[in-house]
Amino acid sequence: MGYVAVRGGGKAIEESLKLLEYERVSTSSPWSTDEIEGTFPELVDQVMGEASLYAPRLAALALKQAQGSPDEAVFLLRAFRSTLERPYVSRPVDTGEMRVARRVSAAFKDVPGGQLLGATRDYSHRLLAFDLETEGPEELSEKRAELAAHFDEASAGAGASATLPRVLDYLRAQGLVPSVASDDAEPVDATMVPLTFPAPRSVRLQTLARGMTQAVEALGYAAIRGFGPAHPTVGELRQGRVAVAVDHPLEPGGADNAYYLGSLPVTEVESVFMSEGDGAEDGLSLAIGYGCVLGRAETKAIAMSVLDRCLELGDKRYPTEDEEFVLYHVDGVEATGFISHLKLPHYVTFQSKLSSVRGTRNADDQAADQAAAAALEAKEATDAAAL
């Protein structure tokens, strides 16, 4: 798509940016990135996930620069990411080795290793805590010390977070849900190649994982409401940290020789769907939808698992099963950029539309005048005949 360059206005743009900066410095507190990261951890997770870059400090910085706008912060962080080198590619991450901090199943009450509720607001009352408005450093320190003492006492002898078996492995062992097929094909990097259709599953999962959180959730909700497959059951939701390692650049070897770089916080979901037989078997079966996102975006991970199943089915009668519809429209940077560009000058294209409308109006007016004249002549002829 081409646009006509607009000249001039440079001074106005400079003054506009100065006014924006003035609004930022005159209406905000001098928060550090550590304070933003500590106060809004889930917002920082969202920005990192949609930008495809794990950098909590930089995500907090982007939020500060964007004055709290997640869309703008994601744009800033993704733009910075595009300037970085990629010297290594990590070894495949085994999420089965996740150090689990939270793990629940809606499918079974008793699961191997037990349900681990962890930190969640799922069961909280959605009431405004007005005491937070006046919470100062002293009150915060007292609460921190009190809760730290409580959990130190409660966790005495409990040990640190540990690896736990997958809940759905119980069903896989019985042959009730399919095991993941081994695939030696290299995953396609969705950040390095244009999006084409049909897209391989690796691209679909990457695009959903880095998609706009609210867009993924909205389409997942639409699918459950009837614009896609039936209501799923969350077989397992697990949240924790996974290890990231890379091979030696000159002497690649096995996992034992890899270099450990650190760990990432992720949320992984396996949802279970009822499915028709594939022809080789009769009756109903179970199918799995998969979601895995950076950070603690649990609702997004569940919605991602729903859309993964939708795109596996690929029935284009439903918008949530249309690859092009879903994958193009969940990208927040693409959506924000395209909609935002409508504010830019479109003088030439609008004048073309205006000329077309005026030309149509003139043609319509001429046709109306001709029709009126013809009607008048017909009336006069009728009157003359009557006389």
TrEMBL record:
InterPro entries: PhnI. GO terms for molecular function: lyase activity. One of its GO terms (biological process) is organic phosphonate metabolic process. Pfam families: PhnI. Keywords: Lyase. The keyword Lyase applies. This is Carbon-phosphorus lyase complex subunit PhnI. It comes from Gordonibacter massiliensis.
